[in-house]
Amino acid sequence: NAGVTQTPKFQVLKTGQSMTLQCAQDMNHEYMSWYRQDPGMGLRLIHYSVGAGITDQGEVPNGYNVSRSTTEDFPLRLLSAAPSQTSVYFCASSYSYTGALNQPQHFGDGTRLSIL
Amino acid sequence: AQKITQTQPGMFVQEKEAVTLDCTYDTSDQSYGLFWYKQPSSGEMIFLIYQGSYDEQNATEGRYSLNFQKARKSANLVISASQLGDSAMYFCAMREGWEANSKLTFGKGITLSVRP
After folding, report:
1. How does pLDDT run across A22-35, given as a tens digit for each residue?
2. Which residues of chain B have a CB within 8 Å of the CB of A30?
3. Does A88 touch chain B (CB under 8 A)?
4. pLDDT above 70 as % of chain B
5. Which residues of B lie closer than 8 Å to A, measured between beta carbons?
6. Predicted confidence (pLDDT) per residue in B48-97, tens digit
7. 3-state SS class at B82
8. Does A41 have pLDDT greater than 90?
9. In A, which residues are within 8 Å of B35 by CB distance?
10. Contacts 24+ apart (CB under 8 A), B42-47
11. What integer pLDDT is reported at residue A97 of this predicted model?
12. How many CB pairs under 8 A join A and B?
């Protein structure tokens, strides 16, 4: 059981380049989310999804796009990378239903992204 | 206003002693859940313990327990019999509301160092 798989683990981009961070989960979780982690800032929510075809913005969505065509996959796209997007990115998933307060989010191992 | 406040910048504890990591939260929802995650230096996010707003007992999971004081809006993590492997960053997080799309909000984290 792989859980949440993120690829790549490391990436260096030049300003203005685009790329997609991949996230896949095999737990049949409805809820998937992307966070960025910066020193002293904790984890901040970028985008999230409660099911295939449904996405919504989190706290820091600017500069990022997402889509959810299947339950398993939730890619994060940077259309034109900026140095401010240098960060560690985490994908997470959990069950999602009314009253699912006690469902912990399961995290991938993270992608360390540097924008030069 | 911050929803999750973790003010201890860094904590030190002697091996085999107990340590308390503080977390206060702010919400107007009656239904919410509180989570603690551990992030070791290797970077992964590990779920430790959960406390629901309606839970009458403090949560416990092995050496981890939660000192939940609802009126004071605090959910402090207690680690008993500290081990060297407990050295890590610890995050408190909250999920508010009964809806399926309720989001998880993280604090900025506390660094714990266990001394031999």
Report:
1. 999 999 999 999 99
2. 100
3. yes
4. 99
5. 4, 31-33, 35, 37, 43-45, 47, 50, 52-53, 91, 93, 95, 98-109
6. 999 999 998 999 999 999 999 999 999 999 999 999 999 999 999 999 98
7. coil
8. no
9. 104-105
10. B43/A88, B43/A109, B43/A110, B44/A107, B44/A109, B44/A110, B45/A43, B45/A90, B45/A92, B45/A107, B45/A110, B45/B91, B47/A104, B47/A105, B47/A106
11. 72
12. 68
Rounded to a whole number of angstroms, the distance from the CA of B86 to the nearest CA of chain A is 19
Cα separation, A44 vs B56, in Å, equals 30
Is residue A78 very low, low, confident or very high in pLDDT (cuts 50, 70, 90)?
A: very high
* Nearest CA distance, B63 vs chain A (angstrom): 19
How far, in Å, are A28, B23, B49, B95 from residue B92 at the CA level?
Answer: 26, 6, 10, 11
- Residue B91 has its nearest CB partner, among A30, A42, A98, at A42
Measure A97 CA to nearest chain B CA, in Å: 4
pLDDT at residue A1, rounded to an integer: 63
Sign, Cα dihedral of B51, B55, B57, B62: negative
Is the Cβ–Cβ distance between A7 and A112 less than 8 Å? Answer: no
Tokens at A8, concatenated: 């790549």
Judge whether residue A111 has pLDDT over 90: yes
DSSP per position, A70-83: SSSB--EEESS--G
Q: Retrieve residue A3's tokens.
A: 């859980």
How many C-beta neighbours within 10 Å does residue A33 have? Answer: 25
